UniProtKB/TrEMBL annotation:
Keyword NAD in record: no
Pathway the protein contributes to: tRNA modification; N(7)-methylguanine-tRNA biosynthesis
Function in brief: Catalyzes the formation of N(7)-methylguanine at position 46 (m7G46) in tRNA.
Species whose genome carries this gene: Aminipila terrae
This protein's encoding gene: trmB
Any single Pfam family the record assigns to this protein: Methyltransf_4
Protein name: tRNA (guanine-N(7)-)-methyltransferase
Length: 212
């Protein structure tokens, strides 16, 4: 979806320096120092307007969260929300991450969230899907042993593809649903803005949680 232009977006982003990270690649291996604690770190790739990660940070004060979003006008909205609640355990990174190993060290993360990622529907673009084997192997490097990946999507074809990639790599599936919001899984309680919109249209949300 095309985002509406925001005036002086660069200047406005700069006012939220307390909640943002200027250069994520320079933080590789030292993210815990940014939070000044030894708590587990979770990353959301493509956080949109921030609702999901902010809520996670609210209900899990004993965890740290890094919310990643590449579009400046979108992450601005997320930063505005974060500033309103003033949580110490969440930071935002404006970036389009193509390789998580450039930003995070081996075993540095406890988990990764992939919420409503771009489906890249054309077959020739399959390698761009964030659940492609190429990406799954990178997640495996930066997530510690027994760490998790959670994936939500409204796109049935992408979900089928993703389950195939997960199984092909031998990852253990812990939770699985083709209708998350009519399941008993707690992941239905923390939603994204996009998720709220589509559940309002009675669209089933596909969900899987697996160990890498």
């Amino acid at each position: 979806m095309r985002q509406r232009k925001v005036k002086n977006v660069g200047e406005r982003l700069a006012t939220f320096a307390e909640y943002s990270v200027a250069d994520g690649k320079k933080m590789k291996g030292s993210w815990k120092g940014l939070f000044h604690n030894e708590n587990d770190i979770y990353v959301e790739l493509g956080c949109g307007k921030g609702q999901f990660s902010i809520k996670q940070a609210e209900i899990h004060p004993d965890r740290n969260y890094i919310a990643v979003e590449g579009q400046d006008t979108v992450i601005l909205r997320a930063l505005e929300k974060a500033a309103a609640v003033q949580l110490p355990n969440i930071k935002f990174l404006k970036a389009f991450i193509r390789d998580v190993t450039e930003y995070f060290d081996e075993d540095e993360l406890a988990g990764i969230y992939l919420n409503f990622s771009d489906p890249w529907p054309k077959e020739r673009h399959a390698k761009r899907r964030l659940t492609h084997t190429r990406f799954l192997k990178e997640y495996e490097k930066v997530i510690r042993n027994s760490g998790i990946v959670e994936f939500k999507t409204d796109n049935d074809a992408l979900f089928e593809f993703s389950i195939g990639e997960i199984k092909a790599n031998g990852f253990e599936i812990l939770e699985y649903s083709r209708d998350l919001h009519n399941s008993a899984f707690p992941s239905k309680e923390v939603t994204t803005e996009y998720e709220d919109k589509f559940t309002g249209f009675n669209k089933c949300i596909n969900y899987v949680k697996f160990v890498v």
